[in-house]
Amino acid sequence: MGQRYTPRPVYQELGEGFADAVEPARFPELTLRFRNQRWAERIGLGELDERAWEDHMARFVPLEENLEAPLAMRYHGHQFRHYNPDLGDGRGFLFAQLEDVRDGRVLDLGTKGSGKTPYSRGGDGRLTLKGGVREVLATEMLEALGVYTSKTLSVFETGESLVRHDEPSPTRACVLVRLGHSHIRFGTFQRHAYERSEDHLHELVEHVATHYMPNCSKKTRDETALAVFSRVLRETGRLCAQWMAAGFVHGVLNTDNMNINGESFDYGPWRFLPALEPNFVAAYFDQQGLYRYGLQPAACRWNLARLADALSLIADRAAMEEELDAFEEIFWREVIPAYLARLGIAPRGFAEDEELVSMVLEWMQESGVPYQQFFFDWYGGAASSARAARSPAGEYYDGGAFANIRRLLRKAEPAPGVDLTHSYFQERETPCDMLIDEVEAIWEPIASEDDWSSFEQKVADIRHMGDALGIKLT
């Protein structure tokens, strides 16, 4: 595995009440469908040969000096704003923890589809192959667009047939390994608050401050809890701003699907916007549109309020309320740089940048311009005027409604590192996108002919876009 692999199994430092040791499922067949080699190298596992990769990423043979057994993590959560005390890792577990080779952060290897646990609630603990494919596409696309997301590290098809009500059955199964910078969820705190366990809450807060947020360790435990909450709030605001700029709709913003580090993860019925539509809904079962695109900031704030409810057993509720009152401002101040990054232009000052972003968003919603196409056409600002004029969406930029935006773009300079000579911009008329019709088109040949060429080409296209946008692995 090379000298750079550094085990750091810190979750086991927590005492009783935080997780349960479980046995992974045994699968009849294992066929590797996806291996994220660039992240494998980043975490010191790039030298694993095919057999070792299969042993660790599908049979879950423990990594050297790491967790001796997988841990199904305990948590509760609000699902569509209804509290559910029967949650927990029901089809996954924490398999290993290690250090990021570059910056020493704690990294988790978590699973999806790895078998039943005490929290499976009658389910089979399995993941459909289509679900695994969709998670790869989501994480690759979001990473390329600069969203702080978990990474899909590995997907193995398992040779099993599953019955699901929301897709044609029987359907194929897989087991997925997810790389994340923490799987500690808002719902982890909620469970211990529900059980009225102040000791567990303090222990969890201290664990987070020690291993994930060392600058949040304060003189008293109450102050540490407040500092941790403040940090989570700001990281959540940043993540939500990145989702909005990416045109991404998560679909299930439950408290058990949000973690302490503001890292997007656990992808179910996600969608990307065809055009800027605040009422766009990702999940077919979200009939009230609770988690529609335009309400994602409100959903994040509501979830943060539930985290504050949990922490109020050990921290000053009034102080957390003050933090919550500032969330909208924090979010908006993150939105501006997120959209400037999408446009590839350098900041000029908050007032000027806010004017441009506000004007762009208003115009995009009124015009119905294809969402990703606009940012592709105008990446680098006015330096891309000629390219935008040749765009399939060029007619959107001819009217008087766009004139003021064009005027502001002329004042903007390309951000440092923007390379409009990259082949992504020079050889394409349309951007790399990820609308639901394409997702289905990628899946269809896999389902019918076991043809993975469209999937593999799409991953390559996404990474080509990420290279053009200068996205760094984070």
Overview features:
single chain, alpha+beta, 41% helix, 12% strand
Cα distance spanning the termini: 21 Å
Oligomer category: single chain
Beta strand % = 5-15%
Shape: globular
C-alpha Rg, in Å?
22 Å
Question: How many strands?
Answer: 12
For the report, how would you describe the main beta sheet?
A: 6 strands, antiparallel
User: Given the helix and strand composition, which structural class is it?
Assistant: alpha+beta
Question: Uncertain regions: pLDDT < 50 for 5+ in a row?
Answer: none
Order of helices and strands: EEHHEEEEEEHEEHHHEEHHHHHHHHHH
Q: Give the mean pLDDT.
A: 96
Number of helices: 16
Structure write-up:
This protein has 16 helices and twelve strands. With 474 residues, the protein is of the alpha+beta class. The strands form four sheets. Strands 2, 6, 7, 8, 9 and 10 form a six-stranded antiparallel β-sheet that branches. Strands 1-3 form a two-stranded antiparallel ribbon. The chain has a two-stranded antiparallel ribbon with strand order 4-5.
Topology overview:
Blueprint (H helix, E strand, L loop, with lengths): L18 E3 L9 E5 L1 H6 L7 H8 L13 E3 L3 E3 L2 E3 L9 E6 L6 E7 L14 E2 H16 L6 E12 L8 E10 L5 H9 L3 H14 L9 H26 L1 E2 L21 E2 L23 H16 L5 H9 L1 H17 L6 H18 L3 H7 L7 H5 L13 H9 L11 H4 L9 H14 L3 H16 L6
Antiparallel strand pairs: 1-3, 2-9, 4-5, 6-7, 7-10, 8-10, 9-10, 11-12
Helix pairs in contact: 3-16, 4-7, 5-6, 6-7, 6-8, 6-9, 7-8, 9-10
Brief summary of the model shown:
The protein is α+β, with helices and mostly antiparallel strands and 474 residues long. 41% of the residues lie in helices and 12% in strands. Strands 2, 6, 7, 8, 9 and 10 form a six-stranded antiparallel beta sheet that branches.
